[in-house]
Design goal:
Length: 128
């Protein structure tokens, strides 16, 4: 379970994640979908997670459960990636403490903003 209370399921080959979504997450995604889709199509090499489907599952009289299926960004084969951020657009509990983050640390919104103030945030090693 994630900190938000969402459940995560990983496919047997670790290529895909399925995450439960709140109703408000689902409604927000519906509003952002067109811009997300356009971005992914315009920038084929974008490293933003690929979302392959968003589903609503309803059984009987129970409230629907919303699910998102996405690619597992931890399986990325690009060894030039310097940092990974889990950006949510919030500042509440969105900081990984410390200064010397390991290459594998998933940083958050406040880390991104702090780094942006002191250094250009390079997501990739620059190649000559």
């Amino acid at each position: 379970m994630g900190k938000s209370g969402s459940f995560f399921f990983i496919s047997h080959d670790h290529e895909f994640l399925i995450k439960t979504m709140t109703t408000s997450d689902f409604m927000a995604f519906k509003k952002l979908f067109r811009a997300y889709f356009d971005h992914i199509n315009m920038y084929e090499k974008s490293i933003i997670s690929r979302i392959y489907g968003v589903y609503s599952v309803k059984m009987g009289e129970a409230d629907p459960v919303y699910l998102m299926m996405q690619g597992n960004c931890k399986k990325c084969e690009d060894k030039n990636i310097k940092r990974v951020f889990d950006l949510k657009g919030s500042l509440v509990k969105r900081h990984v403490p410390g200064d010397d983050h390991k290459h594998t640390a998933v940083l958050k919104d406040k880390n991104f903003l702090e780094m942006k103030k002191t250094e250009p945030v390079m997501l990739f090693d620059q190649k000559e």
